[in-house]
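Practice problem 4.
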């Protein structure tokens, strides 16, 4: 789901949610930074992306929730 969050963020903004030059930097950013997704519209999509990108497993959405949220956006 975190990979899906990255893809959704890139599709919505054209940028990656974390600025990293290497895999190590990416892993560090993912575990130590919170993405804002402030440029993502609508707000419901922003919230979905942020939940997908959460580094706390209990906060992440299920794939069913992702499917339902995306269906509501169309």
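Answer key:
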């Amino acid at each position: 789901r975190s990979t899906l969050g990255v893809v959704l963020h890139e599709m919505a903004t054209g940028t990656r949610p974390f600025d990293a030059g290497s895999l190590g930097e990416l892993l560090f950013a993912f575990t130590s930074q919170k993405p804002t997704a402030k440029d993502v519209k609508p707000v419901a999509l922003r919230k979905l992306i942020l939940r997908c990108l959460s580094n706390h497993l209990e906060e992440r959405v299920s794939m069913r929730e992702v499917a339902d949220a995306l269906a509501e956006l169309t």
